[in-house]
């Protein structure tokens, strides 16, 4: 029996006491998941369940990090007729007998899929590090402290006794930082994450990872004493050390100077008292201040082994991009908006796209931006637009007279105009811009916070020194194509605040220039690919994080839909014009693929996927970057004569440096002739031609090296992929370690099979193999190919296997329908430890991607733990290496 509920009380136990005690007498396994939410759970009740009822209990001790509201029972029966009760009742007398509760009974034979989801979700929670085993003799004091804290204001919390474990989005940042240091040899790194997403916790966990068993010298820099005290408390909690760190702020000075939490003001007066290499690790918070003289001097002076800069806003109001200024334009990691929303780290938003009646189609539009002066003229001479804005506020905002809003304008004149019109309408407002004094800006912010005004109108970004959690409304009063700028504007209102349940965003959209792109900011808001975005616009965005909505009025929806379709179906002539514009005075042949992608904000699928043609005017997309470059430069040479370049799209997933170097070496016409015993040669060959060539490997080598065309293409492609990769590949263990396959790298099925000898050590070609399990006897290795989100378009009912992650190291896998324990495969699984077979899992989210068939991530070797059932078998695997955080989020989501 399984039970999950927010809290457990003795009054609820008493009602079911005899029945619960009977579970232990009958030897029935009983698992309970609960929390310290609001301090309601009673230790006596949990102790009784464990001691008298034989229950295993797991508790979330810090309910601020995991909001569990589920209440459900699951009864497993030997007959298979399992039953569940799902509803609103906790285990208390009021809920069981007296309360007005709603619960529904579901049975296996009538709602098997519902119970299947319950099982998978429960198991995922059970194995989560956020739910810890409760043992009364060991954990009673810890539970009582957690309950006391949960019943108090969060400001009184001391979390030193908690086990601090990263959330998936934080784990992703830690993995990215590790990759930057190990793979890219970058030791000055910038992390971009919205305020409230736990940047300081990430920094402390990163320090713990770097430190190991030692305590390297640390300097943590921030600009406010409150931030420093909170940061030091966080490090102490993570390190389980109540005396870690010393403050250097106000009148406090460090005595030892080994672990210093310093204000920039105090440090700037005496930082050269320490040798430049005194600190091993330097962390600088709120690094959007980095261009200021005091911050820059600290940044330039200290020479630590590792420097970590944290910011929510890499672009400042004065136009300085600190990523470009200090980190070569590169972020080590960035928390994606939808991940933060899913984790409830940010307040959900309701985004409304509203037609404002303006026509911008004839306004000058160059390199992604409208002419500011022309926009200003349209907006400041248009009172009808103001009336629409005021009406939408009345319709969409609960009480506009009490709102706290920021309006983003095109110019100072526009901000002044909007402020005047709002004041005239009875909505008190002010305007700010970089030209006004700091005192005026501070006063405006204070007035907004205090409710003395309802809105601040500003120009461009509103980041420098600004943190207004109470902002609950954003007015997008100018068109914004840049995803970065849009997300920073959106971030001004996403902070949690008392009494704030949602952020309202009103985006006033006119008829745009045909070159304007809606897809960039919509993809930034949702994380959807371009094709999925098109479906979402058509269907009204049905799959968004909890509480979040994106709503267009009819006119805007039609305009956005048309615009997104145009961007997805962008023709080659349009791409060529874009390449020529970005190249400027240079020849398009000198423009790199990375430069083009950075400037155009387009994905790789915009470049690849087309077919060669005698005339570029007759096709909608190109087969390669090399082809686009040549056509843009006026060279009509066609890559149709280079079959290898024609297939370059199939290599857009390659993400480990060793494989990139190997493929480049094989394709280099001036390099040594490839060794036909080199597995990388066969991996590249079967990637390009899954069923091989008529002329065999000799013809393949000739085509791969012909004229150096593929080599040129891969140099450009791998430059982009190398810059984007955050993978730290590691050699597999056991028999699988004899292959060149690496854990956490991405592979197409053909590459995996070729790496293990198929197509050259054994006759069957990788292209003819379509099964989800590949047993390679010569390597004593079995590869399991797993697609998490299965579509009925690609999978039959017999192959819709139930595969999901329980945590980053445990994976539930369902075998093929013909597999029983007695079968050869079943015996390999259950006797894995004794027979020494290597099991390697390859996992992907879906079958298709924007660049064709989606590659699998090699999550690495797996060890057998247990199984149940037969034909199919449900097998629980233990991964030898934790799963990458981004894939883990998807692999756990399919269970719930």
Automatic annotation (TrEMBL):
Q: Which SUPFAM superfamilies match?
A: P-loop containing nucleoside triphosphate hydrolases, Phospholipase D/nuclease
Sequence ranges assigned to domain Helicase C-terminal in this UniProt record: 389-534
The protein's matches in PROSITE patterns, at most eight in alphabetical order, are given as: HELICASE_ATP_BIND_1, HELICASE_CTER
Q: Where is the Helicase ATP-binding domain?
A: 180-332
InterPro entries associated with the record:
ATP-dep_Helicase, DUF3427, Helicase/UvrB_N, Helicase_ATP-bd, Helicase_C-like, P-loop_NTPase, PLD-like_dom
Q: Pfam families this protein is in?
A: DUF3427, Helicase_C, PLDc_2, ResIII
Q: What is this protein called?
A: DUF3427 domain-containing protein
Q: Which organism is it from?
A: Brevibacterium paucivorans
